[in-house]
Design a protein that fits this description.
Elements: H1 3-20, E1 27-29, H2 31-44, H3 47-57, H4 64-76, E2 81-90, H5 97-101, E3 107-111, H6 115-129, E4 145-158, E5 164-168, E6 180-187, E7 193-198, E8 201-209, E9 217-223, H7 230-241, E10 248-249, E11 262-266, E12 275-281, E13 283-290, H8 301-305, E14 319-332, E15 336-349, E16 360-365, E17 370-376, E18 382-388
Parallel strand pairs: 2-3, 12-16
Antiparallel strand pairs: 1-18, 2-4, 4-15, 5-6, 6-12, 7-8, 7-10, 8-9, 9-17, 11-16, 13-14, 14-15, 17-18
Helix pairs in contact: 1-7, 2-3, 2-4
Length: 396
């Protein structure tokens, strides 16, 4: 993956994650699934819409389509990750040949205008491309929709070292007394625990590696201080995993060094190597994002907020963005991690936005809300980011 593109996608991830969890609710999102769609829109946009999309992308609009194609090809080559794009257009909507030729390889299909027929086709595509994790295309359908542009990402990781399950009942905090599905593992790699300092104080990061391989992904768990702003914890974590923020490993910190969830001490042991004991919780999250609620963040304010011919490079017919949504899911369990998202942009004919309703021993214990990142091991591209407030329960 090109470094410039990775940096641009990670920057959008950081800005979005910094806003998405300000209310403290659990969520999961992927800018890696949205960014290519914004790039393809920018390639066909003009006027203020092109300027705003270019600013949101962080690269010139004239190079956006090529960057989107390269990114999606690279994503599909990451071990355990599937990436796909799709375009559905009304039969009578003329598409500009140059724009169509720059689209990434993927599904090309026709919208019939019949809501039931189109809904079945779009939902089937979403479910098939995400292995059933996302069952519904997040877009309105019907006779008013001229074009749908969508992407799908599906990530499946198997842990290098599985966790064991146990029931845990936190003694304090928002999960106090709840019977949670705890996960535990012991290994000898203190360097997998790092501590970085962000706007809300120190953040402890734990890298949970996927199965070995040159091309693959890892998951990082992020724990801040009690009361730390979730957005600050996530943006600090993104900066650390992408190399923009320095950190110290548990192997480098002295005994007793204070960090969220982390204890460090020297103990007697029957073996010469370090001991790392990890305790966390399993979780499953689903989230729906109406991207037009923060249209300026994604460069869609002009394209969705006023009538006009915003995309002459896509069609001679005036088009406006009527909906832009993402459906995402993530699951972290004893054997591995799954995450998937479908992002869809619906375009309408010359109309404004349509309203949407929809031996040293290091111990790390996660027993309160925390963040997570799924990161491509080779490029440091953040594939998924999220915040956990409601972990899985376990009753015996």
């Amino acid at each position: 993956m090109k470094t410039q593109t990775v940096r641009a996608v990670n920057a959008l991830t950081s800005r979005w994650a910094g806003r998405a969890v300000t209310d403290g609710e659990g969520t999961v999102l992927t800018a890696a699934g949205l960014w290519p769609l914004l790039a393809l829109l920018a390639d066909g946009a003009a006027g203020p819409a092109r300027t705003e999309l270019q600013e949101a992308l962080g690269i010139p609009a004239e190079t956006a389509a090529e960057a989107a194609r390269e990114l999606l090809t690279a994503l599909d080559g990451v071990r355990g990750l599937r990436a796909a794009t799709g375009l559905w257009a009304r039969r009578d909507l003329p598409l500009e040949a140059d724009w169509s030729a720059r689209l990434p390889a993927g599904t090309r299909a026709t919208l019939t205008g019949d809501e039931d027929t189109d809904r079945k086709a779009l939902d089937a595509w979403a479910a098939e491309r995400t292995d059933g994790l996302v069952e519904r295309m997040p877009v309105d359908v019907g006779p008013h929709v001229e074009l749908v542009l969508a992407s799908a990402l599906a990530l499946h990781l198997t842990w290098e070292q599985p966790f064991s399950e146990r029931q845990v009942r936190p003694a304090h905090g928002p999960w106090k007394g709840r019977p949670l599905r705890g996960l535990a593992v012991t290994h000898a790699f203190p360097e997998r625990i790092r501590v970085a300092r962000g706007p809300s104080g120190p953040v402890t990061l734990l890298r949970v590696p996927g199965a070995p391989g040159a091309l693959g992904a890892d998951v990082h768990l992020l724990l801040g201080e009690p009361g730390a702003a979730p957005g600050d914890v996530l943006t600090t974590g993104i900066a650390e995993v992408t190399g923009a923020l320095a950190s110290s490993t548990a192997a480098e910190l002295p005994d007793g060094a204070a960090a969220p969830g982390l204890s460090l001490r020297t103990v007697d042991s029957t073996s010469p190597g370090p001991v790392v004991r990890i305790g966390t919780v399993a979780f499953g999250i689903r989230a729906e994002h109406d991207l037009l609620r923060q249209a300026e963040l994604f460069g869609l304010a002009s394209a969705a907020g006023r009538p006009g011919h915003h995309f002459p490079g896509i069609s001679t017919v005036p088009l406006a963005v009527g909906s832009a949504r993402q459906s995402a899911v993530a699951r972290f369990h004893a054997e591995g991690f799954e995450a998937a998202a479908v992002t869809a942009v619906g375009m309408f004919r010359g109309a404004a936005r349509v309203r949407s309703y929809r031996v040293r021993e290091a111990g790390f214990e996660v027993d309160r809300p925390f963040g997570f990142l799924a990161v491509d091991r080779e490029s440091d591209l953040v594939l998924f980011a999220g915040w956990v407030t409601d972990p899985d329960t376990l009753t015996r």
